[in-house]
Specification:
38% of the residues lie in helices and 15% in strands. It is built from 14 helices and 12 strands. The structure holds pyridoxal-5'-phosphate.
């Protein structure tokens, strides 16, 4: 039944049907969960068509990989047991002596791991202000820089970086550009179209969208040698996504477009309301005209500016924590990209050596009524700052 019935349709339609063309045996419109860890070889003792062992390839995971490959306009895709498993696989495909340029700031968990790993395994890591192309151009070393890693929009200050500009700098030096596009999703931004080589997602966030699956994904413009190394790494280290998680992720992807668009629309409205609030020093949101990279965001994120924002509270660190504690609708929990809105005091999560402002609160806007969210933040700000 794999007749590519849904080829040529819009990404919205593709996602709504899970990119799935039906089960050949039963006609089921939803794929089964293939829980098997091992697969029978053929009569001729040839390998099974979809892989011989779950650690190497998962038939359930394959549905997600095929769908994401098409949504990102990629040549190939792989799903992983977490976003970190996906991101670290890219860095681990580098070799000792290679030079890596890493955007700073970005998701602190990845940055912390990369610094330690590169120090211990002989990869030279240098941080860049990826919003400044001159800074990147001055640090890149043709022939020895093998990878530039960026995140846009970036955690937690929501900086937007120029994917096309960085891809050009990377390619002139013989390097690859990898983009963590977790906050944007393919609904809002397609990095490969701007010249990126690899796109990474923490699928734990919007792609799954329900705070109940830990997963990651990589998509590549070219299934080249570097990609083969990443694929081999996944098989050998067992960073493969389990079949039940893959099934849930595939289900979550069916509603990706409506979820992201609804949450984005609420976020844009909230960002404007909050920018006028007496208790807010600044709203960090790429959709606001006062965001330093707003013009770039307009070009690079044609689908909208996302449902993540940070607030600088007009008050002390303690008062910022009090705002989080006073919320009744926003859930005080880390992570992002689910149906429920989350609020967190980012410096508490990142620790005392985090460079981010101590009065920064990060919001992940979900699918609740936008007035409920505003009233909640308004009362929390008033209570904490009185
Ligand atoms: N990238 C970003 C932007 C994230 O926010 C996160 C997690 O918070 C990760 C990567 C890591 O993903 P995971 O938690 O799925 O390992």
């Amino acid at each position: 039944m794999r007749d590519r019935r849904n080829s040529g349709v819009t990404p919205e339609s593709l996602a709504a049907q899970g990119g799935y063309e039906g089960d050949a045996e039963t006609g089921a419109v939803v794929p089964p969960v293939h829980a098997a860890t091992t697969f029978r070889r053929g009569e001729d003792y040839g390998p099974p068509p979809q892989g011989d062992y779950l650690r190497n390839a998962s038939p359930t995971g394959r549905h997600v990989e095929e769908l994401l490959t098409r949504l990102e306009g990629a040549e190939a895709g792989l799903v992983f047991a977490s976003g970190m498993a996906a991101a670290t696989a890219v860095v681990m495909a580098l070799r000792p002596g290679d030079h890596l340029l890493l955007q700073d700031p970005l998701y602190w968990g990845f940055r912390g791991w990369a610094v330690d790993f590169c120090r211990d395994w002989g990869i030279e890591l240098e941080t860049i202000d990826a919003t400044d192309l001159d800074d990147v151009a001055s640090k890149i070393r043709p022939g020895s820089t093998k990878l530039i890693w960026i995140e846009t929009p970036g955690n937690p200050v929501m900086q937007v970086v120029d994917i096309a500009g960085l891809a050009e700098i990377a390619h002139q030096a013989g390097a690859r550009l990898a983009v963590d596009s977790t906050m944007a999703t393919p609904v809002l931004q397609r990095p490969l179209e701007h010249g990126a080589d690899i796109v990474m997602h923490s699928a734990t966030k919007y792609l799954n969208g329900h705070s109940d699956v830990l997963a990651g994904a990589l998509l590549t413009r070219q299934a080249d040698d570097f990609w083969q190394r990443i694929e081999q790494h996944r098989s050998q280290t067992g960073a493969t996504l389990g079949p039940f998680e893959a099934w849930l992720l595939h289900r979550g992807l069916r509603t990706l477009f409506v979820r992201v668009r609804q949450a984005t629309s609420t976020a844009a409205w909230l960002a404007n309301q909050l920018s006028k609030h007496a208790g807010v020093e600044a709203v960090l949101y790429p959709g606001r005209p006062d965001h330093p990279q707003h013009d770039l965001a307009l070009r690079q994120m044609p689908g909208g500016f996302g449902a993540m924002m940070s607030l600088l509270v007009k008050g002390s660190e303690k008062q910022a924590v009090d705002v989080v504690r006073a919320c009744r609708v926003f859930v005080p929990a880390t992570s992002l990209g689910s149906t429920e809105s989350l609020i967190e005091h980012r410096p508490t999560i990142e620790g005392s050596d985090s460079p981010i402002p101590r009065n920064l609160i990060r919001l992940s806007i979900g699918l609740e009524d936008r007035r409920d969210l505003f009233v909640d933040l308004d009362q929390a700000l008033r209570q904490a700052l009185k």
